[in-house]
Amino acid sequence: MALPAPRSAAVQIKRPPPPEFTPAASTAQLPAASGPTSPVAFKSVGGAGVSASPAPGAKRETTQRLCRNVMIYGLSAVLMMQCIYYHPAPGEAISTPASTAPSPSLANTSLPSANGSKLAAGLGAAAPAFVPKTPTVENTSPAHSAISLQPQWASQADGGILELEVDGVPMQPGLSYDDQSMYMTQQHIRPPLDYNLYTAPLTSVANPPLATHPLHSFCIPDDLRRYLTSRNDAQWFAPSGNSYPGLPNEIGVYHSLTPLDPPRLPMHGGPIHGHPLSRIFPHPAPAYRARSTVDGGIYMLRRIEGYKLVNEAAFGAIDSWKRMRHPNIVSLREAFTTKGFGDNSLIFVYDFHPDSATVLDEHIQPDAAPLTMGRRRLGMPIHEKVLWSYITQVANGLKAIHMSGLAARNMDPSKMLITGKNRIRLNGCGILDVLAYDGSTPVAVFQQEDLVSFGKLVISLCCEFFAPGQHPGPALEHITRQYSPDVKNLILFLVSKPSPLKSVDDVIRMAGARILNDLDAAQNYIDVLEQNLATELENARLVRLMSKLGFINERAEFELDSRWSDTGDRYILKLFRDYVFHSVGGDGRPILDMSHVVTCLNKLDAGLDEKVMLVSRDDQSCLVVTYRDIKICVEGAYNELRNSGAGMMGAGMMQMLGR
Ligand SMILES: Nc1ncnc2c1ncn2[C@@H]1O[C@H](COP(=O)(O)OP(=O)(O)OP(=O)(O)O)[C@@H](O)[C@H]1O
C-alpha cells in the first residue's frame, strides 16, 4: 500500500535557532534519552555536512540533488508533489558516490530536549540528531525478530560525515549514513505486504479460490460476523429496568428475567395463570432468559406453573439429567420449586442458546416471529439433505439418552432447538420425568415411545399437512413422491410396533453413509472457523501495540518529568502516533484510513527495516526512521514504565491480552 502523503509533502528546510544544548566536541549524549535505547555516542569526523544546509561549495543545485522522497514514497508519488529536487527517470539507476552524496536523512531535525528546548541538527548547530541504524537481526522471523543492537543517537559536532557507533563499534568508517542505507539502489527488493500480515489464508479453506477475493480473506466473513453479532445481542440484551415488568426481580440466584416465548394464542384448553398450556407439558410452561448471580452466566429458566409435588422420587432422574453433556442435548443445570411468581412453580434451569429457534417455529409454524437480524425462517418443504442431518443429530442425542438409562419423552418439534448452523439440540429433557413420574413403568417402554415419536417428528418435517394424531397414510404417500425411499423406510420402521429388538442403533444403521455428510460439513466448518480464529488472533497483536503506545504517549508525569512522554525516544513515538492516526490531507481534513493504520501497526510489530518519515505538527522537525527503530523505542519506553510502579497496570493489561 502506498504510504499517505506526509503532513507537508515538501519538508521545509529552516535553519534552526541556536541550540541551548551544546554537546562535547566529538561525542555527545542526548540528554533526554534515558531509556534502554538511549545511551548513544555519535562522532563527527569531518567532511560534508549532514544538515539540510550543507557547506557552501559542497552544495549542488537543488534540481541536481537526488530527492530522498523517491526512496520513501516512490517516484510517481513524488512527481505529484511537484518536488524541486532531482528525480531519476524510471529505470535509471541511482548513483550516490560517497563524495557527492547528498545530505543525510535528517533534512531538518530538531528534537525537544528534556527541559523543553529544541535541539537542532544543522550545520554548525552541533546538536544531536537521531540517526537510525540497521541493527543485526538474530532471528529473521517477522513476528518476533530478536534485535541485538540498539539504535544509536548520533550527532555531528563540526558538520562532518557521521561516524556511527553501535555498542562502541564504528559502522563502516568512511561511509556516510546515506551510503549505508538511506539511498537504496533500485535493485532493493521490498518485502511483500503479506510479510506483515502473518496469517495467510489456507488455500484449502478458501472458497471461492483465493485469487478471486485476496483482500476479503484477511477479514472475518460478513455472514459469520453478522451471526456472531446477533448471537451476542441476543445473549446480552436486557430489559432497561431490573427485570421485565410483571416478573419478579429475582428467583433464587437468577435475576433480570426476560420472557422467551413469542406471544401466542392460547392452545389446548386456554390460559392458566395468564399463560397458555404447553404443547406437551400438562401445565403452562413459559420460558425465560435470566442471569445468574453465582457465575454471571445467562440461563434459560423453564417455569412449570401451578406445580404440586406429589412424590419426592419424581426428582430421582434429575441428577442423571444434570450429568448429561452432549452436543445434541440442551444441558439441564438444576431444578427447584419456588413461590417467587406468586404461585407454586417448578423451575428447570437449562443452558441458554442465544438466537436459537425451535424446529416448530423454523419449519412448521408459518406465523412464527422473525429471528434476530430479520432472518427469514427456512419453512417448508424441508430439503432431504437437511432432513437427514436432523435425523442424524436427533438419533445421536437419543442414543446418548438411551445409553444413560433415560428416555427423552418429549420428541416434539417445539422441543427441538436449532442453534447455530443447523445444529439440533433436544430441549426440555427431564421435565416429563418429574411431571409425569411413573415409577412402575420400565424406562425401555418410554424409550420405545421415543422412537415412535421420532417417526412422527420426521413425518411432520416432510409433510406440512400432517398433524399428530392423524392417520399417517396420506402423509406417507406425499413423502413417497417427494423424498427418497430411505426416508419412507425409516419412518415405517420408527412408527412400527414397539419391540425389544428395535433401538436407536437401527436408525443410525439406516442413515448409513448419509451420516458422513454431517461429518464432512462439521469438519469443513471447523477448518473455516479455525482459519477465521487465526485471522482474529492477529487483532490481539495490534491491540497490544496500541495499548503500549497509549501507555507511553501523552503520559502527563513520569519520574518527576512532566515532559517525559515528549522527549527522547518517546518523541519518535509521538510523531509516529501522529503519522498513523493524525494524518491530514492537502486540504487540511483528517485522513481516516483504517488500512493505513493497520498496515503501519503491522509493520511496526514486525519491526521492518522500511523507512518512514515522521514530521512534527509544526513542520519544523522531520525524522526518517525505520519501523525497527520505532519498535525498539516502543519496547524501551514501555519497559521503562513497566519497571516502575506504573508497570503494574501495563503488565496486567498485557497479561490479559496474552503476552
Ligand atoms: N435453552 C434455550 N435457549 C435459548 N432459547 C430457548 C431455549 N429453549 C427455548 N428457547 C426459546 O424460547 C422460545 C419458547 O420455547 P418453548 O420451548 O417454550 O417453545 P413453545 O413452542 O412455546 O413450547 P410450549 O408449547 O411447550 O410452551 C422459543 O423461541 C425458543 O427458541
Please provide a written account of the structure.
- This protein has 17 helices and 18 strands.
- It has helices at residues 69-73, 75-81, 177-182, 222-236, 318-323, 359-364, 384-403, 431-435, 443-462, 473-482, 485-495, 504-511, 514-552, 569-581, 594-606, 627-642, 647-656; strands at residues 42-44, 109-112, 118-121, 128-131, 152-155, 162-166, 169-170, 250-251, 254-259, 287-292, 298-304, 332-338, 345-351, 357-358, 416-419, 423-426, 611-615, 622-626.
- β15 (416-419) and β16 (423-426) form a beta hairpin.
- The protein is elongated.
- The relative contact order is 0.11.
- Adenosine-5'-triphosphate binds next to β13, β14 and α6.
- It is found in: Cytoplasm.
- Residues 552-659 are annotated as: Knob domain.
- GO terms for molecular function: ATP binding; poly(A) binding; protein kinase activity.
- Pfam families: Pan3_CK (PF18101).
Write out key terms for the chains shown.
alpha+beta, 6-stranded antiparallel β-sheet, 3-stranded antiparallel β-sheet, 17 helices, disordered N terminus
Topology:
Blueprint: E1 42-44, H1 69-73, H2 75-81, E2 109-112, E3 118-121, E4 128-131, E5 152-155, E6 162-166, E7 169-170, H3 177-182, H4 222-236, E8 250-251, E9 254-259, E10 287-292, E11 298-304, H5 318-323, E12 332-338, E13 345-351, E14 357-358, H6 359-364, H7 384-403, E15 416-419, E16 423-426, H8 431-435, H9 443-462, H10 473-482, H11 485-495, H12 504-511, H13 514-552, H14 569-581, H15 594-606, E17 611-615, E18 622-626, H16 627-642, H17 647-656
Antiparallel strand pairs: 1-6, 2-3, 4-5, 6-7, 8-9, 9-10, 10-11, 11-13, 12-13, 14-15, 15-16, 17-18
Helix pairs in contact: 7-9, 7-12, 7-13, 9-11, 13-15, 13-16, 14-16, 15-16, 16-17
The chain binds adenosine-5'-triphosphate.
